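User: Before I run my own analysis I want an independent prediction to cross-check against. Here's the chain; please return only the C-alpha cells and, at the end, one sentence I can use as a sanity check.
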Amino acid sequence: MFFPGDERLDTIVAPATAQAPGHRAVVRVAGPEAISVARAVFEPLAPDPPGAWVFEGQLRLPPLVLAAQAWVFRAPRSYTGDDTIELHLVSSPPIVQRLLEQLCAAGARLARPGEFSRRAFLAGRLDLAQLEAVATLSTSASRAQVRAAAARLRGALRRRLDTLRETLLGLLAELEAALDFADQDLDRELLAEAQLGARLRALEDELGALLASEARHDRRGVVPQVVLHGAPNAGKSSLFNALCGERRAIVSPLAGTTRDAVRAEIELAGGLRVELCDPAGIEAGTGGEGIDAQAQRRAAALAAHADLVLQIFDASAEAPPAGPAPPAGATVLSVLNKIDLGLAPWAGRVADALAVSARTGAGLGRLRAAMAQRLIADDEAGERLTFDPNARHRVALQRAAGGVAAARAVLERAQPAELAAIELRTALDAIGEVCGESVADDVLDRIFSRFCIGK
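Assistant: C-alpha cells:
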C-alpha cells in the first residue's frame, strides 16, 4: 500500500547525511508536528527576527548540550509540503543516534526509505520523473550524470512530455468531435479534412525520437561515448592507449589487428567522464560475411550511435586514406596522428584538425580539451541528456508510441474511429505514467524503496 492508514499525518525523522565522523550532520524532521517535536530538543540562543529560517541554538541531549543550528522550512513551501526542520550538528554517529531517539520520544517516528520524497510527490512539489532524478543525483559518479539528472530535476523531461500530451489531447478532441457526426456519415469526411493520419504519424515520430534519445544512453547511462574512427593502421589503438594512460589495446604494424571493440572510461577536462571505444579500422569496399567484414560493420554501427567521433588520419601517409567518411549527422573531431613521423602535404588541408602524436604525447592535452568542449557544446548544458536509463520510462513511452501507431492504423484501414480513440487514451495514460499522473501504488512503492532513508 502506498500510504497505509493515516501515515501522511505522522511526523517523520531521519538523518539526511551519511552517518560517519565529520564536520556536520543533518537530521531532517517533517510533518504536522515537526516544529513542536524539534523544540523538545532544540533551544534557540536568542529570539530571531520575523521571517528568519536559520536559528542558532543548543541541542539538549542529556547529559550533553551541543551547539547546533535549526533550519526551518514552513509548509507549504518546503520540499515535502509539510513543516520541515533540519537540525545541523557535529557529525558523530553516537550523537546522531541519540538525537534520533530523543526526537522519536517527542512524537516523531523513523522515516521509511524515500518517504520524504514520497510526500513531496503527493504534495505536488515534484513529479515522479523529477523525484527519480533526486535518486540519480545522490548516486552520480560524474559531472555528466549530474548535469543530466539536474536537467530532469528542472523539469526538462516534463516540458517535453507536456508538449506531446497537449498535441495528443488536441488530436483526441478532434477525433471525438468527428464521432458526434457518425450518425450523419460525416465522421470520415471530417477526419479526412483534419488530416489526423498525417498528424498522428508526426506525433509517432516525436515519440520515436524521444525513445531514441534514451536508447542512445541506455547501455552506458549518461556517460558520453567517444568512438575512434578511421582506416586500419591510422594509429587508432596507439591513440586509444595514450588517452587511457596505459596499454589497453593491442598495437601492431599489421592492419586489422583490432576486431573486437576495446573500451575504457577516462576523465577529460572539467571532470567530464567519457567512455572511449576503439573498434576495428574501416576500409572502403569491405563486404561479405567474413570476420573482418563483420568487425567493420560493428565499428560503423558504433560510430553511428556515438556522442563524438574522433576521425583519425595517419598524417605521415603519402596519400589520404580511402576509408569511408564518418556517419552522416555525427559530431566529428578530426585528428591527425603520427605527426612525429612527419606531416604529409595533404594533411594540412584537413579542416579544423588537431595534430597529435600518440607515441610522444604531443598535442594530447589539446585533444582532451577539445573533446570535452565539443561534448559539452553538443550537450547544450545538459538539456539533451534529459533522463538516465529507466526501464519504467522506456516501457511507458513504447506503449504511448504503440497506441499512437495503432490509432493511425485504425484510421488508415477505415475501421471504426472509436477504436482509434481508445488507442489514443491508452497513449495518454502511458505518457502520464512517466511523471506519475497515472501510476499504480505498487510501482510507486518499488520506486521509493530504492531511495535512502533521509531522501
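Sanity check: The longest strand covers residues 64-73.
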